[in-house]
Amino acid sequence: MLSWLGRGALVGVAWGVTARIFMRLVSTDPEFSWSGTGAIVGMSALLWGGIGLVAGARVMERSRWWRLAPLPGLVLFASPGMVLVPGAVGTAVAVALHGRPLVVRALPLLLGMGVTLAPAFVAGDGDGGATPAPAWVGLALVVAATVWLGLGLHAWWRRWGRSEVPATSGGGPRTSLGPAAYDRG
């Protein structure tokens, strides 16, 4: 389980750095502090470490109680990070609808992303002018980080059960990353 925790925490650090970069690029009045950056990266590592524990517990057929592991990391969204939640939830729902028509899967994704990105488009550059080029790069990173977060949320809440982890010929559990793994929600 420690290796799953470590992998999740590394993903969290990468996600936190991406989030910090997009915050810097999107902001009209960027302020940078090492303590703020450390808090964002640390809380991201905490959240994603918990998601890693959930993934590990699922693969190792452990108790469903491991689903509680990411809860302390949700403090990340008690601040301005909460604007990412609608897009991430929309992404997770879209992934869970695998096998449905594209239009059905796209609706929660587009709705969630619209809610997430609307404030950036309404604000513009703050002076009523066009959004500067670095802000567009920041918006692209917001979308990437939001989709990334949605995939993590889906990994956290998707169905848990023995039928989900097919046995190998060697007798031990293994993961399946193919389309069949997503057919069960």
Automatic annotation (TrEMBL):
Domain of life of the source: Bacteria
Residue ranges, annotated region (Disordered): 166-185
Transmembrane segments: 6-26, 38-59, 71-95, 102-123, 135-157
Protein name: Integral membrane protein
Record keywords: Membrane, Transmembrane, Transmembrane helix
